[in-house]
Amino acid sequence: MKKKVCSTANYFTAVMAGVLSLSLMAGCSKKDVAVNNKAEADKVAALIDAIYVQDWTDKTDEQCSQAKKAWDALTDEQKELVKGENADPEYFGRNTGDASLDNPLNQDGIGENEILVVSFGTSFNDSRIQDIGSVEKALQAENPDWSVRRAFTSQIIINHIQARDNEKIDNMKQAFERAVANGVKNLIVQPTHLMHGAEYDELSETAKEYEDKFDSIVIAEPLLGQVGKNAASINADKMTVAQAITEQAARNAGFASRNEADENGVAFVFMGHGTSHTAKVSYSQMKTQMAQLEYDNVFIGTVEGEPEETACENIMEDVKNAGYKQVVLRPLMVVAGDHANNDMAGDDDDSWKSMFTAKKDFDTITCQIEGLGRIPAIQQLYVAHTAEAKKNEAR
Question: pTM for this structure?
Answer without folding.
Answer: 0.90
